[in-house]
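Project outcomes to date are best conveyed with an example. Our students and postdoctoral researchers have been running inverse folding experiments weekly, and each run begins with a structure described purely in tokens. The record below, which covers 250 residues, was selected by the lab manager from last quarter's runs and is presented without edits.
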């Protein structure tokens, strides 16, 4: 019977669609990268999604984050993403967590429930905690390396963490994974040398922060990264493609 996933089924077959519809995927971080991952997963027919992010949509997110619109500014990102998911597929089961994933919140999650985990967060400590939790549960995981300060969407590659180069975040992750005895980790990384962002006080979040009171501040970073509409989106879509292909055994 013709349905919204018919075109996908022409490529993956009925068994592939059944696998996707019976899968639960957790996406940690639903910003520039994770938002596009979620979009592609729901349009691919994933039956259940867990969305984990404690951040709210900010005016500065409108240049790159899929669920960021003038209407959703100030809303929790997971709530905006859930609303969009159900506009696409009302049957998709969504659980949201307004939580920043770190060692002190990891016990909120049972990784054995997931068929796949997507790491789209931006702290090394959080990423490593995610990787170790997924590994302990035997759940496959894919990690996004640095997407900020990049301008070339064609420079992204899928590789094992130990096959990466150039990316500063991947270099740190390689070292930390080696220390922890993590032998393999699928990542998406860029071979492009990152651009150092301009320090322009007139448009800097450091000078004009509009985050709500009590929110985590992006200004605690050494540099506030620049980003575009066409780089994080590509990373998110690459990740979604890898998840789908792995789930159906392609």
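After processing, the design step wrote out the following sequence:
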């Amino acid at each position: 019977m013709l349905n919204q996933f018919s075109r996908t089924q022409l490529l993956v077959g009925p068994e592939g669609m059944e696998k996707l519809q019976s899968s639960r995927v957790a996406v940690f971080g639903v910003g520039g990268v994770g938002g596009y991952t979620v979009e592609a997963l729901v349009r691919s027919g994933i039956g259940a999604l867990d969305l984990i992010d404690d951040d709210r949509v900010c005016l500065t997110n409108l240049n790159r984050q899929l669920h960021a619109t003038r209407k959703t500014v100030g809303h929790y990102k997971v709530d905006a993403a859930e609303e969009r998911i159900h506009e696409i597929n009302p049957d998709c089961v969504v659980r949201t967590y307004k939580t920043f994933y770190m060692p002190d919140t990891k016990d909120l999650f049972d990784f054995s429930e997931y068929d796949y985990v997507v790491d789209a967060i931006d702290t090394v400590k959080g990423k490593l905690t995610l990787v170790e939790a997924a590994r302990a549960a035997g759940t496959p995981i894919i990690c996004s390396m640095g997407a900020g300060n990049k301008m070339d969407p064609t420079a992204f590659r899928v590789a094992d963490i130990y096959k990466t180069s150039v990316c500063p975040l991947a270099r740190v992750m390689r070292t930390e994974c080696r220390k922890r005895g993590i032998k393999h980790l699928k990542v998406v990384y860029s071979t492009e040398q990152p651009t150092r962002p301009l320090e322009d006080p007139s448009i800097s979040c450091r000078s004009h922060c509009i985050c709500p009171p009590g929110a985590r501040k992006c200004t605690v970073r050494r540099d506030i990264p620049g980003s575009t509409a066409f780089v994080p989106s590509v990373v998110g879509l690459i990740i979604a493609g890898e998840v789908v292909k792995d789930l159906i055994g392609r």
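The chain has a mean pLDDT of 93. The CA atoms of residues 117 and 141 lie 5 Å apart. The training component of this project remains on track.
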